[in-house]
Design goal:
Elements (H helix, E strand, L loop, with lengths): L3 E2 L4 E4 L3 H26 L6 H30 L5 H30 L3 H27 L1 E3 L4 E6 L16 E4 L5 E7 L12 E5 L2 E7 L1 E11 L14 E8 L13 E6 L30 E5 L1
Antiparallel strand pairs: 1-4, 2-3, 4-5, 6-10, 6-12, 7-8, 7-11, 9-10, 11-12
Helix pairs in contact: 1-4, 2-3
Length: about 300
């Protein structure tokens, strides 16, 4: 609490041991995919070609032997010295040897041609997929580290080491803010909106210190009127109403300390009532008078 942090500084880390274990598995798969791609790109191996060349020579020799056997049997068959079955057997053996030679030559040519282009594309896609899975897990691991979104000071710490961090917590684990420049968020009752003017003078006082005044500077208006949420506990306070939120800036040099979240009474100089609107309401807009500041009806606000 109270530490000053820069944008991107780590605030706390969620247990990521399961993601770390999964990362090792995905990295191993990536290494395997890259190795497979490299193997396909380097094909053929120099050691793979000679055996196929030898297979071609062997098939050619068997073809020559089958061709010679078929020729001998054919001559004997023509002289009626050998049965037709022997001739058919040697003839079919010749055809088989010829097909075996063609297959051996095709295997050699395929090996020399290297890896098929489409197989390389599949291997490259596998590497990209494995890399994407690694990157995805690294992103999830990085998200386990909660970092400061902006420069500021840690105002509140609601998480401890080893504590279960539920996603449905009603309060933030860490409240971070820039306290160099403080602002006041003023709730203006919807009944008083006709008397509100953006450029009107405004001052704020602290609870219990009504004579210490802080001149306010108009910053902006949140144009959406919302149900009243910030309650002061006053007996005369209306809760079943809607309010317009207006943000004012406190001066950087203040006579006394003002803390973030502290409630203040804000007094606005009322604009002239529009025609047809009466000031006789439950929440009256009172003209601004510095000489009688404590008699005006304050707009409840909270510093931020």
């Amino acid at each position: 609490k109270g530490d000053h942090v820069k944008k991107g500084d780590p605030l706390f880390r969620i247990d990521d041991r399961d993601l770390q274990a999964m990362l090792k598995v995905r990295e191993a798969e990536l290494v395997s995919a890259k190795a497979t791609l490299h193997k396909l790109e380097m094909a053929p191996r120099p050691e793979d070609v000679p055996p196929l060349q030898a297979a071609v020579e062997e098939a050619r020799a068997k073809l020559n032997d089958a061709e010679a056997a078929m020729a001998r049997t054919e001559r004997l068959f023509q002289r009626q010295m050998a049965p037709a079955s022997d001739f058919d057997k040697d003839r079919f053996a010749y055809y088989a040897a010829k097909a075996a030679l063609a297959r051996a030559i095709a295997d050699l040519e395929r090996m020399k041609a290297g890896t098929w282009k489409e197989d390389l594309e599949v291997a490259r896609a596998t590497v990209v997929q494995a890399q994407s899975q690694v990157d995805s897990i690294k992103i999830n691991i990085d998200r386990c580290t909660v970092r400061a979104l902006t420069d500021g000071e840690i105002l509140q710490l609601n998480v401890r080491l080893g504590q279960f961090a539920a996603m449905t917590w009603k309060e933030p684990m860490i409240v971070l803010g820039n306290v160099d420049h403080l602002h006041v968020r003023v709730d203006i009752d919807e009944n008083d909106l006709p008397f509100f003017e953006k450029g009107a003078e405004a001052v704020a006082t602290l609870k219990g210190r009504p004579h210490v005044r802080f001149p306010l500077k108009f910053v902006y208006v949140e144009p959406y009127v919302i149900p009243k949420q910030s309650l002061t506990g006053s007996n005369s306070e209306r809760v079943d109403t809607r309010v317009l939120q207006v943000v004012y800036a406190l001066p950087d040099e203040r006579p006394i300390d003002v803390h973030v979240g502290q409630q203040m009474d804000v007094y606005l100089k009322a604009a002239k009532a529009p025609k047809g609107i009466s000031l006789d309401t439950d929440a009256k807009a009172i003209p601004f008078d510095e000489d009688d500041l404590t008699s005006a009806s304050p707009r409840k606000s909270r510093t931020s």
